[in-house]
Amino acid sequence: MAFETWETWRTPEEGGFDGGKLSIAAEQIERRIREGKLAGAASFVSRGGRIAHCSVQGFADRENGRPLGQEAVFRLASMTKPITAVAVMTLVEQGKIRLTDPIGKYVPEFGGDSYVAVPDVQASVASYEPDPEAPAGSIPEAVPAYTLEPAIRPMTVRDLLTHSCGLGQGPVGFREMRMPGEDVTLASHIPAWARVPLDFQPGAQTGYSPIAAFDILGRIVEAASGLPLDVYLGRALFEPLGMRDTTFGPSAEQRTRLVALYESVDGGLRRTEEQNPFFHPTYYSGAAGLFGTMEDYCRFARMLAGEGECGGTRILRAETVRQMASPQLPDSIKGFPEWQTWGLGMRVVTDGESAGSCLTTGSYGWSGAWGTHFWIDPRKDLFAVLMVNLANAGGSDSEASREFERAVMWALAY
After folding, report:
1. Residue 356: its pLDDT value, please?
2. What is the DSSP string of 276-299?
3. N or C terminus of the chain: which is more exposed, having fewer CB within 10 Å?
4. 3-state secondary structure of 88
């Protein structure tokens, strides 16, 4: 049974929660399932290294009556990005990558001149605004007319980790980038993106690079480690942390535990025609390609909450995790709400109190397009994970995720 070796608070109150208020988190999920807004959801809250809340509700496959279990496999989508970021930082600690390195050091095709698209009609590079209908980013009908200007400097590893590289972050990049076809790998496909114009000068602003930045980081991990991304993640993270079900390619047995994917349509749920978006047998997307269970991701989150250590296994140094969870961009940079910014691979809340957010300043984490979500609150010694199987959940602006955050944080007694 999942989580069988984890310690649990005897009562929520012992963990610093109001038990009645904390139960509202599960009640709200149940209401969404009853109203046909969700098929199922798995949720987890830990405080002080012990379980305060763990629940699985609804269905993994509603049509076939298969209930959701703790060992259900979810599509992690962009919750892959923090895992890729940690892999990068393990190699930084080994001296094989530097954050200031130009990416051409690892992908030679990026070593030449690069150019920035300057649209004839300005205001084309908008700040990142979550769109429930396009969680990977809105794609315009056509590429706007533009001219090219030279990039003032090369893109760096840090630019990729902070979504400030400019590649695939606006209307030109979204249209000009060619997505992976059949029989390609990171090594064979990523070099083609070196010819794509940037949407803004590297480091000049931020926003969200839903695919390009972290797929390139995946290739950088391969180049620096000498191993395919899936092999390196397995050796450096998944095997040491006991993340047995986290993978780019689910086995036949894991596929029997894979949740069905639904979409919200006209106030109800409909099973999506495409049940395996982002799955590719040979192209391991560092941005969105992983599958995994709630328990596996809780192990990953527990490692970050433990400043690099989980269950006696150390993945990163404490100072490295603190760096990842700290703001990495200037306060003046454009492209993200004022009360939050990017750390290294994850969103960091910089002023939750004045923004009216339920999250404490210093909290960090990220979300996936189909309803996966996590955050870590160092001040409250808390982390939480939510897994949902809804194709148009809304990514980082998912209603279910925001509701879960509010319920958990409201339940804190101290």
Report:
1. 81
2. -TT--SS---TTT--EEEHHHHHH
3. C
4. helix
